[in-house]
Write a structure and sequence with these properties.
2 domains, five-stranded parallel beta sheet, binds adenosine-5'-triphosphate, binds magnesium ion, binds zinc ion
Length: 327
């Protein structure tokens, strides 16, 4: 029997924010992890909550996994339905290691990363999370499983989630654009940014600035609905699935850079000229280079192109502003 989960919020509610909406669509199509940076009230939480509504519904095998986990976590109220929608899990930044990763002193319950399996894990105000909790996300993100060891034994849970991080540009929230109203010292801004920098952000393909929408934008016409965007996402995903069929990957966000740089998928030199130059100039790391390639393939899939163009790569480059959080 089918689950009758409540309808997720609709993307049509988000006015303006063209770039962030595009990034959200790309994130959905390629299962790319994403980082939204902007001042308070810009709509970061609104956007993140709308990602599950853009993702394909779960097939029966996936729905069984998700329903079993929800049941373990005590979140199932009916036993005649399957959870067909990708879950959306948004733990509070004060949450403990056990709450996020799994475990606990008595019973071993699945953590937020497992409850977000096949769905979205949203860390709002990400720099406020405990550092060791943020760093503990890295290994499960890589492997898609987490092992929790307790006196009662070792428990292995799945945790293939899509990560969405949100943050203000600085502790006061106003260090944005010209940053005139920002009250933070350089030291405080640096330590705020350092919380996420490095290994965690290295795995996040999309880093997007979300400015406060202008009043004109708020009065403008509604944006496209989730249903319209989700239809494009479905097509893009099936193109990608065909390309990766026979490999261990299903979505672009999972494909290692080495594969994208291999002879079979290597892009022509004129296509990568801009990111090649950025690497030569030292403004783009090699990891950042691979992230651009991954995103460029998703942009091409969404546009129905068999191979990314120079513009697709350029768009990918513009959607990963490393300086998003002022360091
Ligand atoms: N683009 C938008 N379209 C429509 N409403 C918006 C938009 N951006 C913000 N709002 C309104 O502002 C409210 C706050 O948005 P939201 O909570 O998503 O901001 P935020 O960026 O997450 O802020 P914070 O940093 O404080 O968490 C929303 O509930 C909504 O009413
Ligand atoms: Mg918010
Ligand atoms: Zn500030």
């Amino acid at each position: 029997m089918e689950g009758r989960d409540a309808d997720p919020p609709d993307l049509a509610d988000v006015v303006g924010q063209a770039e962030a909406r595009l990034a959200l669509e790309i994130a959905a199509a390629g299962a790319h992890h994403m980082f939204l940076v902007g001042p308070p009230g810009a709509g970061k939480s609104m956007l993140a909550e709308r990602l599950p509504g853009l993702l394909p519904t779960l097939d029966t095998a996936q729905a069984l996994e998700v329903t079993a986990i929800a049941s373990l976590a005590g979140r199932v109220t009916r036993f005649d339905t399957l959870c067909r929608r990708p879950p959306f899990v948004a733990p509070h930044h004060g949450a403990s290691m056990a709450a996020i990763i799994g475990g606990g002193s008595g019973m071993v319950t699945p953590g937020a990363i497992t409850q977000a399996h096949r769905g979205v894990l949203f860390l709002d105000e990400a720099p406020e999370f405990r550092s060791h909790v943020l760093q503990a996300l890295r290994q499960p993100m890589e492997s898609g499983t987490v092992v929790v060891a307790r006196a009662a034994g070792r428990f292995r849970y799945p945790c293939r989630f899509q990560l969405v991080l949100a943050a203000n540009p600085c502790p006061c929230g106003f260090g944005f654009g010209k940053g005139d109203r920002c009250q933070c010292s350089i030291v405080r801004r640096r330590s705020y940014a350092a919380k996420l920098a490095g290994p965690l952000l290295d795995r996040v393909d999309l880093q997007v600035l979300v400015p406060v929408p202008s009043r004109a934008a708020l009065l403008g016409p509604p944006g496209e609905s989730s249903a319209v965007v989700a239809a494009r996402v479905r097509v893009a995903r099936s193109i990608a699935a065909e390309r990766w069929s026979g490999s261990e990957y299903a979505v672009n966000g999972e494909v290692p850079g080495a594969v994208l740089r291999s002879r079979r998928f290597r892009l022509a030199l004129p296509t990568t000229v801009d990111i090649d130059r950025s690497v030569d100039l030292g403004t783009l790391s090699l990891r950042g280079y691979d992230r651009c390639l991954r995103v460029a393939w998703t942009v091409a899939d969404l546009a129905g192109r068999t191979v990314p163009t120079r513009d697709d790569v350029g768009l990918a480059l513009s959607l990963r502003q490393q300086q998003a959080v002022a360091a």
